[in-house]
Amino acid sequence: MARMIKQVGAYRPMKRLGRSHFHDLVRSIVFQQLSGKAAGTIHGRVVALFPRRHVDPHRLMQLSDESLRAAGLSRQKVSYLRDLAHKVHTGAVPLQRVRTMDDEAIIAHLIQVKGVGRWTAQMFLMFRLGRPNVLPELDLGIQNAIERAYGLRKRATPDDVRRIGEAWAPYRSIACWYLWRSLD
């Protein structure tokens, strides 16, 4: 890590997005498995369906499937967004309390939502909440960077990431920033 830090340079904190927690999760779902340009276009169309571009669960539940599909969402993503909106609306996913919850509790709540897995929940912790000690063991970039930095013969497994990443606590999010930058 010391060599990587010297190579990459000073840590520049990850910018947190300015929208609501709900909006950021909607954005994460929209962007899944799409190129950035296509996802950005679709996301912009979805956001335009909301008054003052304020993406909220109540309004999302009122939108028709047809209007969401016309924005470019697949049927599957429409179902994911509806599940998210429903779970936030009912309190099953307590977004208003995430600032006071520990990381694993947040992950446990978020992965109840169809289309939100552990990786998406970890990205939410890192980039939305600015949590300093998140280690996304399933991230291919992290796995590849560890392989390169530690001279492994093949891509690091999630177990390798957890084992090697233990030494970085309580600043594993920062270590991940360096690992991602090392691939640039």
Could you explain the architecture of this structure?
The protein contains eleven helices and no strands. It has helices at residues 2-8, 21-31, 36-48, 57-62, 65-70, 75-90, 103-110, 118-128, 140-149, 158-165, 172-182. The mean pLDDT is 94.
In a few lines, what is going on in this structure?
It contains 11 helices and no strands. The protein has 184 residues and is mainly α.
Annotated CATH topology of the largest domain:
Endonuclease III, domain 1
Indicate the low-confidence ranges by residue numbers.
none
Terminal CA distance reads 16 Å
Whole-number radius of gyration? 18 Å
CATH superfamily of the largest domain: Hypothetical protein, domain 2
Strand content: under 5%
Sequence of secondary-structure elements: HHHHHHHHHHH
Q: Using DSSP, what is the number of strands?
A: 0
Morphology call? elongated
* CATH top level assignment of the largest domain: Mainly Alpha
The percentage helix is 55-70%
* Number of self-contained structural domains: 2
* Mean pLDDT figure: 94
Question: Could you list some keywords that capture this structure?
Answer:
184 residues, mainly alpha, Endonuclease Iii, domain 2, Endonuclease III, domain 1, 2 domains, 11 helices
